[in-house]
Design goal:
The chain has 2 domains: about 45 residues; about 180 residues, 3-Layer(aba) Sandwich (Protein Transport Mog1p, Chain A). Strand 7 and strand 8 form a beta hairpin. With about 240 residues, the protein is an alpha+beta fold. The protein has 6 helices and 9 strands; from the N terminus they run ααββββααββββαβα. The strands form 2 sheets. A 7-stranded antiparallel beta sheet has the order 2-3-4-8-7-6-5, sandwiched between helices. The C terminus is likely disordered. About 35% of the residues lie in helices and about 25% in strands.
């Protein structure tokens, strides 16, 4: 009798093991299919990584929406670009929408000697947010609006953005600020309000795939596949408050 019970118990374990293995395989297969679909969506909507660019030099991995073309100079406003580690603009004149990117890095303090100078400071790191708000508010005559508007928190694949929305003469302006110390990065999207349905997915994918710091450098060196695919992939620790 004991042998019979032992045989039944071992058989049950084998059946359970086969069932668990099949379930795990189906889960992996489903995830793989989701990954492939997501990567295709990213490639269909976003440009390839911007290799050999100023953004690569400062380790900001960005894939702008397709149809946008990088401009030679920062287009949002006449600013002192030396106050930022990077200041870049992307434009689709035909569709009438743009993306502007500003980055400021908190560089470590290094003693200056006769032979070796410390890193160049590009503006006050602690004043990045008010500087961006001042630029955006001045351009769109919305300083009061943006300073009194409580920013929303928008988490995209672990990137925690502070998000403001401004309406300006038939345009929608979306301001996203990301802090991942020692980086602060602002993405400013402007597009005709009636195009929001077609634009919003591109913006979300662009935010999903934004990476700064050492991980960005690794992604550029590795061919820039972007953030790991899947609805919950690529999660990173939440950012500190600005």
């Amino acid at each position: 009798m004991r042998r019979l019970w032992a045989l039944l118990a071992s058989t049950s374990l084998v059946v359970i093991g086969i069932g668990c293995g099949a379930e795990a395989y189906e889960t992996r297969l489903t995830r793989t299919i989701e990954d492939i679909k997501y990567k295709k969506k990213v490639d269909d909507n976003l440009m390839p990584p911007l290799v050999k660019s100023r953004l690569e030099e400062v380790s900001v991995f960005l894939r702008p929406p397709r149809s946008l073309t990088e401009t030679k100079t920062f287009q949002l406003a006449a600013i002192d670009t030396e106050q930022f580690d990077s200041a870049d603009s992307f434009l689709d004149a035909k569709a009438g929408w743009t993306l502007h990117v500003l980055t400021r890095i908190r560089h470590p303090k290094t003693a200056v000697t006769a032979k070796k100078k410390g890193p160049v400071a590009h503006g006050d790191y602690t004043k990045f947010t008010p500087d961006v708000i001042g630029i955006v508010g001045g351009v769109y005559n919305a300083t009061d609006v943006i300073t009194t508007q409580k920013p929303k928190t928008d988490v995209r694949k672990g990137n925690e953005f502070k998000h403001w929305t401004i309406a300006s003469e038939g345009k929608s302006v979306q301001v996203y600020l990301l802090q991942k110390d020692p980086y602060k990065t602002a993405l400013i999207f402007e597009y005709p309000s009636d195009q929001q349905a077609s634009v919003i997915e591109k913006i979300n994918l662009c935010l999903d795939n934004l990476v700064v710091g050492p991980n960005a450098k690794s992604m550029y060196q590795g061919g820039g596949e972007g953030v790991e695919a899947g609805p919950d992939a690529g999660a990173q620790a939440p950012a500190a408050a600005f």
